[in-house]
UniProtKB/TrEMBL annotation:
The keyword Transferase does not apply. Belongs to the short-chain dehydrogenases/reductases (SDR) family. Keywords: Oxidoreductase. The keyword Secreted does not apply. CDD domains: SDR_c (cd05233). This is SDR family oxidoreductase. Pfam families: adh_short_C2. InterPro entries: NAD(P)-bd_dom_sf, Sc_DH/Rdtase_CS, SDR_DHRS6-like, SDR_fam. Transmembrane segments: none annotated. It comes from the Bacteria. SUPFAM superfamilies: NAD(P)-binding Rossmann-fold domains (SSF51735). The lineage of its organism: Bacteria, Bacillati, Actinomycetota, Actinomycetes, Micrococcales.
Length: 251
């Protein structure tokens, strides 16, 4: 549902225990939404929800393995029983394994596509009716990996690129009641960078036109915009949130 004054939406966010997902959860809650903080890390999801409630917001931390159809059905039963049908879904969960194609196992490949790409299908399959009834919105989190190539990321790139095409398709299939858009973050300061060298972080910053890494909140604010009345005529859009990285690198 496009949010109106005094109305509370339920916003479901996957991969919401850390990074962009957690920042999005806090931002939606600050604006008065009821947030379902989901993650495979149950304890971390609960911590984010606790922090939101401590700040005066409304949220629950819920376990969700986005690669498991049964987990989606269990969450659906729980939310419907609690009269919390999602009006907005933010698909942020991902899984990443490095290595060239011949170095990745079938399980590596399949899990990356299941968590990052097929989870969006599962989200719409599970909650298409609540999104439609609410005239709601879905925002998918892709990556500049969907339009640029770095070494040894075949499944991740395929999944993130597929999200762009899937977003366009869903925006057609569920129009006019549900808007579906996708954001493409660049190098964002999340825990993924904890495993990278300072040299790699500095290089990523230099590759952006703005000469720095982005923050999770800077992506979250765009996600929140796409789910708002301010974007009521925006659907099927792919919005770069990359500090100009794709401009600098020539995508």
């Amino acid at each position: 549902m496009e949010k109106e004054t005094g109305m509370t939406r339920t916003v479901l966010i996957t991969g919401a225990a850390h990074g962009i997902g957690a920042a999005s959860a806090r931002m939606f809650a600050e604006s008065g939404d009821d947030v379902v903080v989901t993650d495979i890390d149950r304890d971390a999801a609960a911590t984010v929800a606790d922090e939101i409630r401590a700040a005066g917001g409304t949220a629950t931390g819920n376990f969700l393995d986005v690669s498991d159809p049964e987990a989606w059905q269990a969450l659906s039963r729980e939310l419907r029983a609690a009269n919390r049908p999602p009006a907005v879904i933010v698909n942020n969960a991902f899984f990443q394994v490095g290595g060239a194609a011949h170095e990745q196992t079938e399980d590596d490949w399949s899990k990356q596509l299941s968590v990052t790409l097929s989870s969006v299908y599962r989200a719409m399959h599970t909650f298409h009716d609540t999104l439609t009834e609410a005239r709601g919105s879905m925002v998918n989190v892709s990556s500049v990996h969907g339009v640029l190539a770095w070494a040894e990321q075949p499944a991740y790139a395929a999944a993130k690129g597929g999200l762009i095409s899937l977003t366009r398709q869903l925006s057609v299939d569920y129009a006019p009641h549900v808007r579906v858009n996708v954001v493409l973050p660049g190098a964002i300061q999340t825990r993924q960078w904890n495993h990278q060298s300072s040299e790699d972080r500095e290089l990523a910053g230099r590759q952006a036109t703005l000469q720095r890494l982005g923050t999770p909140g800077e992506v979250a604010s765009v996600i929140q915009f796409l789910a708002s009345d301010g974007a009521s005529y925006v659907t099927g859009a792919s919005l770069l949130v990359d500090g100009g990285m794709t401009t600098t690198l020539g995508a």
